[in-house]
Amino acid sequence: MFLPLMMIMACISKPSGSGAEEKLTIPDTENNDYPLEPMTDIDALTYFQDNALDVGWNLGNTLDAYRSGKAHETVWGNPPVNQAIFSGVKAAGFNIVRIPISWMGNFGEGPDYHIDETYLQRVAEVVGFAHNAGLKVIINIHHDGSTDSNGKDNGWLSMNRALKGEAEYREVTANFRRLWTQIAAYFKNYGDYLMFESMNEIHDGGWGWRSETIQRPQYEIVNQWNQVFVDAIRSTGGNNTARFLVIPGYCTVPKHTLADYFKLPDDLVSYDSVSHDLVSHNNKLIVTYHYYDPYEFGILGTRHNWGSDADKEKVVNDFKPFAEKFVDGMGIPVIMGECGAVRHPGYEQTRLDYLSFVFKTAHENKIVPIYWDNGAFAQGETFGLFNRRSGEPQSPEFEDCINAMVQAVR
After folding, report:
1. 30 counts as catalytic
2. Of residues 30, 73, 338, 381, which has the active-site annotation?
3. Residue 275: its pLDDT value, please?
4. Whole-angstrom Cα distance, residue 202 to residue 161?
5. Which of 328, 327, 329, 249 minimizes the C-alpha distance to 290?
6. For residues 254 and 226, what is the distance between their CA atoms, to the nearest angstrom?
7. Exposed (0-12), middle (13-18) or buried (19+): which is 309, by Cβ within 10 Å?
8. Which of 86, 101, 123, 409 is the most exposed place for a label (fewest CB within 10 A)?
9. 338 is catalytic
10. Cis peptide, bond prior to residue 294, ω within 30 of zero
11. pLDDT tens-place string over residues 53-98
């Protein structure tokens, strides 16, 4: 299909359904000294298969941590990130890492929303640690969209605010677009080992559990923001014209990601100057969802028994549709961007059984599970596995958990 270049730029300057007319300008904050790295030409599913990407790990509660409206990597108790943690994760058998990042408090006022370059440099340093260890990397916009169960917004990427009216929607969307344009421009020369994920668990306070609290416009806003994300990344050029991009559904909940109202963004934004065609990159997209079911076992830790036939059947039934719809049906890889279960002191074997079965079932359905490690071992949501300073398992108990997950997919 032939389209003049001016028409192409007009298409990528107006996100689907937003009514916005502003252009996606390339920011002046760019990592211009970083050399252009090799980039693959293959689709995302082939990339995952060729690189045997089968099990991952999250650097949780670190670059996503925040206090009083500002992100800072040590305010939730984890130490500064070093090379050792990623080297340890790689040595343990993981091959892809998700680095959640909150940006709040580290960028200026609109309309520029200029990101502090020191913060971008630190993010780049952490990405470099992971790459040096031989890991593939996902970065995102994380707690900027945080909303608690009472509907209190802790971040600027607010579903509730966007629902108030067109002016509020446009302002939040402009901030989202501008941040991703800057992030993408800064990393545009990085190779295909670096992937971008649009957002994390965006919702109105209901966490996607109570369907009566989810109004249809919210689905549409998530779809529109995903489109804005894709358009912003592609507009920055460099390796971003073909970078792999991770797309969540509403609140990153399985049932909302499988629903008909979840729409993958259009990815027709690259102009081929030789053939004068738009080049489709729909095969560069990756679908994500999160999984801690059952909630009482996976997160609350109030239920210690797991492993009945019904428990296992639920996991199989939850995962199989993702393989059928996306992997086999559309040739699009699927990741469980967060998953796992908290500690169950005295019931360690039950936790091992859960992790092993969930990861094995994910693998059998061609889904890549990425464990949520928040560095916590004794209090709160105890998902910690690794000593963040040394990169070693915190104790034999946690080494058993690591081995259970890695061996389940191989």
Report:
1. no
2. 338
3. 64
4. 12
5. 249
6. 17
7. exposed
8. 409
9. yes
10. yes
11. 999 999 999 999 999 999 999 999 999 999 999 999 999 999 999 9
- Per-residue burial over 100-109, b = 16 or more CB atoms within 10 Å of its CB, e = otherwise: bbbbbbbbee
* Amino acid present at 267: D
3-state secondary structure of 254: helix
Instruction: Give the three-class secondary structure for 119.
Output: helix
What pLDDT score does 273 carry?
61
Residue 356, pLDDT score? 98
Whether a cis peptide bond, with omega within 30° of 0, leads into 80 is no
Which residues have CB under 8 Å from 13's CB, separation 6+?
A: 21, 22, 23, 24, 231, 235
Instruction: Please tell me which residue in 201, 296, 364, 397 is annotated as part of the active site.
Output: 201
8 Å CB contact between 272 and 9: no
Give the chain's residues under pLDDT 70: 1-30, 32, 211-212, 268-282
- Structure tokens that stand for 78 in this block: 């984890």
